[in-house]
Amino acid sequence: MSEEGKIRRLVVLLVISLVLVLGGGLLASAAQTAGGAVKIQDVRFTGSNGAQMSALLYIPAGVTAENPAPGILAVHGYINSRETQDGFAIEFARRGYVVLALDQTGHGYSDPPAFARGFGGPDGLRYLRSLDIVDTDNIGMEGHSMGGWTILAAAAVAPDDYKAMVLEGSSTGEPFAAPGTADWPRNVAVVFSEWDEFSLLMWGVETPPAMVDGEKLKTLFNTTDTVEIGRLYGSIEDGTARQLYMPRGTHPNDHISTEAIGYAIEWMQKTLDGGNGLPPSDQIWYWKEIGTFIALIGGVLFLFPFGGLLLRTGFFRDLRAPVPDAKPATGVMWWIAAALTIFIPVLTYFWLQNRGAEWFPTGSFWPQQITTGIMTWAVGNGLITLILFLVWHFQTNRRAGATAENYGLTWDGRLRLGMILKSLLLAICVTLGFYVLLALSDWAFKTDFRLWVLAFKPPSFFQFQVSLAYLIPFGFFFLMASIALNGQLRRARADGTPQPMWRAMLLNVALMAVGILILLLIQYIPVISSGRPLPLAEPLLTIVAFQFVPLLAIVALILTYFFHKTGRVYTGAFIAALLITIYIVAGQATQYGF
C-alpha cells in the first residue's frame, strides 16, 4: 500500500474512533438522563474538617423547591467511585427520587484519606438534606459493600435523618460498621447475592446461603429462627422493617444486575412516600453501560491511528523504522518462555501484592495501598522477566548472533538517549490525546469510558501528581514486557520475515491476558458450580483481577502496534505506562491523609 493510502486508512480509523466515542457518549447520556427527564450535576461541597467532597446529583424533571421529592444517598464500595452506582442512581431518579451518588472520602474526587469521617457518609447525608428540592421527611440510603458501612455511619450520626436503607452486598457490625439491632438501623433491606465473595467478612458465614442461620443476621432481623428470604419482618411504620433479598450473582455483579437493582427499587418504593410508582422491572440503566462501553472501544481505538499519524509528522518521522530481524526463542524454549510469561504473573499475583502493603506502607510518596500492591506485583514480575531474559540471552541466544538491535533496544548498535526521549514525548502526546478525549466526554455527557469494573476516569490534578510517583516502577514492567513479547517471544514466518502485525497482536494478547483469565476461572468455577467459597480465598484481590484481563489485552495491543511502527520497544512501553498508571491511580482509594 502506498504511503498516501496508509495515511487515508489511519484517518478513517481515527474518524471511526471519534464516532464511537461520540455515539457511545450520546447513548450513555440519553440513558442516564432518561431521555432528558433527569438532570445530572457534578457537585462539590465542603464536608467536616473543611474536606472537599464530590458527588453526582440526579434531579428528576419537575422537582423544585416548591415541589420537593424524596431523596436517596447512593454510595459505592471500596476502590470504586460515584459512577459505579449509576445503575441504582439512574433507576431511582427515573422513579422521581433526587439521588446523590457520593464519592467516599479518599475515592474519586473526594479528599483523602479513605475511611475518614465515617467514609463521608455523614457529610453526604447532611448535604442531601440541605437541598431545598428534597423532602427531608422521605430520605433513603443505599450503599454497596463499604458503601453500606458509609450509610451506616451516617445513620449512627443522624439516626432520625433518614427513613430507610438498602445494604447491597454489605452488612451491619464488624469490622467497620456499628452492630445492627432489632430497631437500628431504620427499615433495612439486605440484598446479598448468592455467590457474594465477602459472606465471611460481612455476615460471619462461609457462603451466602448460610447467612439465613447466622447469628448476626438473626440479631438484625430480631428472630431466633432461620431468616426467610423475601419475607417482611417488623414494621415499616415503626422503622423496624427488615427484608432479605438474595439475587443470583457475585459481589461486583450487583452493579450490573437487574435483579439486585430491582430489589433496591422495590424497597425504596415500600418505605418512602412519593415517587411515580414505575415498576422495579422497568429498567434502562444497561443502555448507559452499553454506551460507555462503545465509548471505551472508541477511546482505545483512538490510540492507534492518532499515534500512527503523529509518526508521520516532521518531528516524529525519524522514529519510524522497520521491524528488526527476529532472533526469538525457538522450539521447546519458546514454549517454555511462553508458559512462564503466562503463569508467573498468576503464581505471584496474591503473594507480591500482599507483600507490597508490608514492604511499602502508605505515605506521602506512595499514598495508595492497593496501587502500591499492584506496583510491587508489576515490578516483581519485571525483575523475574529481566533475570530469565538475561539468562536465556547470554546462555543461548547470543551464540545465535542476537544483539540488542534484534530486541528493539538500540539504533545501529547504539543506545540513543535522544531517540528514547523522543519516544517518550510521542507517548505523552498519544496518552494526552486519549485523556483529552476522555475529559471532553466527561464535560459533554457526564460519562467516562467504562464497562463494569473497567473504568477510565479523567484524573484530578491530585491524582495526576500521585501517578508520577508510580510511573517509573510501572514503566519498568511495561518495558520488560515489551522486550519479552517483541524480542524473546516474537514469531516469524518460515523464511524469517516478520509475522503480520495482526497475528502478533493476537498472540501477545493471549500471552499477556490468558493467565489472569485462568486464575479467575480457577476461583469462580467452584463458586458458581457448587456454591463453595473461593478456593484461593483473597476476595478483594480476586475482584481487582477482573480488570486486568482487558487491561493487559489493551497493553499487548499497544506494545505490539508501536513496536511494528517504530521497530523499537520504547514508545509502546511508555504509552502503556502512562495510560495504565493514571488509570490505576484515578480508580483507587488514597489511604494516606495529606
Descriptive tags:
eight-stranded mixed β-sheet, globular, 2 domains, Rossmann fold, 594 residues, alpha/beta, 51% helix, two-stranded antiparallel sheet
**Domains, number:** 2
User: Percent of residues in beta strands?
Assistant: 5-15%
The number of E-state strands comes to 10
- What is the number of helices? 16
Q: What structural category arises from helix and sheet content?
A: alpha/beta
Order of helices and strands: HEEEHEHEHEEHHEHHHHHEEHHHHH
Secondary structure: helix percent? 40-55%
Please state how the strands of the largest beta sheet are arranged side by side. 1-2-4-3-5-6-7-8
Main sheet? 8 strands, mixed
3D architecture notes:
This protein is an alpha/beta fold and 594 residues long. The chain folds into two domains: 35-283, Rossmann fold, CATH 3.40.50; 315-587, no CATH class. It has 16 helices and ten strands. It has an eight-stranded mixed sheet with strand order 1-2-4-3-5-6-7-8, with helices on both faces. Strands 9-10 form a two-stranded antiparallel ribbon. Strand 3, helix 2 (86-94) and strand 4 form a beta-alpha-beta unit. The N and C termini lie far apart (55 Å). The mean pLDDT is 96.
Summarize this structure briefly.
This protein has 594 residues and is of the alpha/beta class.
Helices and strands in order:
Elements: H1 3-32, E1 38-46, E2 52-60, E3 69-75, H2 86-94, E4 98-102, H3 121-130, E5 134-144, H4 146-157, E6 164-168, E7 188-191, H5 199-203, H6 215-221, E8 242-245, H7 258-271, H8 285-310, H9 331-359, H10 369-395, H11 417-445, E9 449-451, E10 454-456, H12 461-488, H13 501-530, H14 539-545, H15 548-566, H16 570-587
Parallel strand pairs: 3-4, 3-5, 5-6, 6-7, 7-8
Antiparallel strand pairs: 1-2, 2-4, 9-10
